[in-house]
């Protein structure tokens, strides 16, 4: 027996040639999980599924017996890959193995058993999947140990497993923006299995046109091309698995629907004065491509969105569930300067391009200062399937005018104790709106008395001056000094609602009673008339007296003249 072994060792015998072949591999496909309908301007989480439907058509391998030792001479190995011979290596003192990679690429070679270390070769990236069809034929002369190719138990499962899968969305010129990372790492996927939903946060452009779009998804993975196991005659073992990289481009079908877009395009306000009810006009336009039903416009208080800091970023990706969850919800503002008296208006059916103007009544707080205050508007509607939707929330600034205010001329009213006068006043409308059917009222306390305290002003335009007058009397025992009377203007706004301005103060200066001389000077016409009457009276009295005195004398003279005449006769 020993002699037979020695003879065998001394006689070089060539091992029979054998072929190793793998036909099959991973087959990767992908689809959109859930709805694929998107709307212009929408931000949505697009979820994808990746499936490996890999299979093996054929797998062949061999296990060579322990080779006979070749005492003199070298070792020669040749490989045939898909029918093409690879390079044949020969060495007189070392043992070398040439490993041919996929598609005829020759792997790394070296010296001795370690020559296969690191000899994996990969194909260049392609955009179509292919199964492995590799054929290897080895002619072995005088090698130590046995060589196994594609005969290990796990080769069949390894051939169809996709390793290190990465998915990359390539929107290109599509009207879609990937807001999350467009490249996802999935790990390995055995044949017959599907990944969990893969979330991509996408935003559709607001001007995207409706239609079907193909969204490219590039999937890259590695697959097992061939498996070697070499056991040395001296007890050493070497395992080598050749993995090649494959890429496939899958087009996902998405549908961008006709836009449902109701837009609040304009807000105008009138009579926004503190303490009044102003009118806000809201213009709503259907800028979409589809008609809507049951449209309702609302006025609401504004909200504060999430913090812009990355620590409080509003969307959190949970790896366990592949879902997105909000970390911070918008905060509702509580401002009472502008309060809608009515906060909704029904619009009904609106065709594309149609616009409506509706009016709202807003109450302006009495203590509101002039400035711009926020108010938000949103439109709810139903699409053609009866689904409730709403437009984007639009926030506008409503300008509140200064408080309605009248002023009076600054010159004080002058009056002396015990006297009465007609006070002439000039009022100015310093507000920004018309004071309709306005009246002014004077309120006076002791020691004053107002003979007629209310005067009609009519419609007073902003900035207009209007004159009026009041009868005022002061008591004789009033203490000289400066006093004040108050004025109030009552008016009506454009909604025929009454309002009263704040109190206006008017100064009255009370002087001491006049002296006799001052009285005479003040009433010089009267005094002059009295003097004239007095003089006329005196003159008349003198005249009467002279006339009366002259009458008897004339009578006596007449009697004497008549006596003389009779004597003559």
Which labels suit this protein?
42 strands, mainly beta, Immunoglobulin-like, disordered N terminus, six-stranded mixed beta sheet, 569 residues, seven-stranded mixed beta sheet, membrane, transmembrane, single chain, Ig-like_fold, transmembrane helix
What does the secondary structure layout of this molecule look like, with pairings?
Layout: H1 2-10, E1 14-25, E2 28-33, E3 37-38, E4 43-52, E5 55-60, E6 62-63, E7 75-77, E8 80-81, E9 84-85, E10 89-91, E11 132-141, E12 146-149, H2 155-160, E13 162-169, E14 176-178, E15 183-189, E16 193-194, E17 198-204, E18 211-231, E19 237-256, E20 262-270, E21 277-286, E22 292-300, E23 303-304, E24 315-318, E25 323-326, E26 331-332, E27 338-340, E28 344-350, E29 355-364, E30 371-382, E31 388-390, E32 394-400, E33 406-408, E34 413-416, E35 420-429, E36 435-443, E37 448-450, E38 454-460, E39 465-474, E40 481-492, E41 498-500, E42 504-511, H3 516-522, H4 524-568
Parallel strand pairs: 3-19, 34-42
Antiparallel strand pairs: 1-5, 1-11, 2-4, 4-16, 4-17, 6-12, 7-10, 8-9, 12-18, 13-15, 13-18, 14-17, 18-19, 20-21, 21-29, 22-28, 22-30, 23-26, 24-25, 27-29, 30-31, 30-32, 33-35, 35-39, 36-38, 36-40, 37-39, 40-41, 40-42
Helix pairs in contact: 3-4
């Amino acid at each position: 027996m020993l002699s037979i072994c020695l003879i065998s060792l001394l006689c070089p015998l060539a091992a029979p040639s054998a072929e190793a072949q793998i036909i099959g591999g991973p087959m990767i496909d992908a689809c959109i999980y859930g709805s694929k309908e998107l709307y212009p301007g929408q931000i949505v989480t697009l979820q994808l599924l990746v499936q490996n439907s890999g299979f093996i058509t054929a797998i062949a391998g061999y296990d060579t017996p322990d080779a006979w030792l070749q005492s003199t001479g070298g070792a020669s190995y040749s490989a045939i890959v898909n029918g093409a011979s690879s390079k044949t290596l020969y060495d007189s003192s070392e043992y070398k193995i040439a490993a041919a990679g996929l598609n005829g690429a020759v792997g790394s070679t070296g010296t001795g058993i370690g020559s296969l270390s690191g000899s994996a070769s990969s194909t260049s990236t392609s955009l179509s999947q292919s199964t492995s069809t590799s054929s290897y034929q080895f002619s072995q002369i005088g090698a130590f140990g046995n060589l196994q190719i594609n005969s290990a138990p796990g080769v069949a499962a390894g051939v169809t497993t996709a390793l290190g899968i990465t998915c990359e969305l390539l929107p290109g010129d599509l009207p879609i923006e990937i807001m999350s990372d467009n490249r996802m790492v999935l790990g390995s996927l055995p044949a017959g299995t599907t990944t969990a939903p893969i979330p991509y946060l996408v935003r559709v452009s607001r001007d995207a046109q409706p239609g079907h779009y193909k969204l490219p998804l590039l999937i890259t993975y590695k697959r097992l091309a061939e498996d070697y196991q070499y056991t040395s005659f001296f007890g050493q073992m070497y395992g080598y698995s050749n993995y090649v990289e494959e890429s496939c481009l899958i087009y996902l079908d998405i549908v961008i629907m006709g836009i449902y877009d109701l837009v609040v395009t304009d807000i105008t306000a009138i009579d926004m004065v503190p303490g009044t009810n102003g009118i806000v006009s809201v213009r709503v336009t259907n800028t979409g491509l589809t008609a809507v039903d049951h449209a309702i416009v609302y006025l609401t208080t504004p909200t504060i969105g999430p913090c812009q800091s990355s620590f409080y970023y509003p969307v959190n990706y949970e790896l366990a569930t592949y879902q997105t969850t909000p970390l911070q919800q918008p905060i509702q503002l509580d401002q009472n300067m502008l309060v809608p008296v009515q906060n909704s208006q029904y619009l009904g059916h609106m065709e594309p391009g149609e616009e409506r103007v509706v009016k709202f009544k807003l109450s302006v707080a009495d203590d509101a200062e002039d400035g711009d205050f926020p108010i938000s508007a949103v439109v709810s509607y139903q699409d053609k399937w009866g689904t409730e939707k709403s437009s984007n929330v639009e926030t506008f600034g409503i300008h509140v005018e200064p408080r309605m205010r009248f002023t009076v001329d600054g010159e004080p009213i002058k009056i002396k104790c015990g006297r009465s006068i007609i006070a002439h006043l000039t009022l100015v409308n310093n507000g920004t709106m018309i004071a309709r059917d306005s009246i002014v009222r004077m309120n006076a306390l002791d020691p004053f008395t107002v003979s007629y305290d209310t005067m009609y002003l009519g419609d007073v335009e902003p900035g207009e001056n209007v004159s009026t007058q009041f009868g005022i009397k002061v008591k004789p025992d009033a203490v000289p000094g400066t006093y004040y009377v108050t004025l109030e203007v009552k008016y009506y706004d454009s909604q025929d609602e009454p309002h009263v301005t704040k109190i206006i103060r008017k100064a009255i200066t009370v002087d001491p009673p006049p002296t006799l001389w001052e009285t005479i000077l003040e009433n010089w016409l009267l005094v002059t008339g009295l003097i004239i009457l007095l003089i006329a009276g005196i003159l008349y009295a003198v005249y009467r007296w002279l006339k009366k005195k002259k009458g008897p004398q004339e009578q006596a003279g007449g009697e004497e003249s008549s006596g003389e005449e009779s004597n003559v006769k």
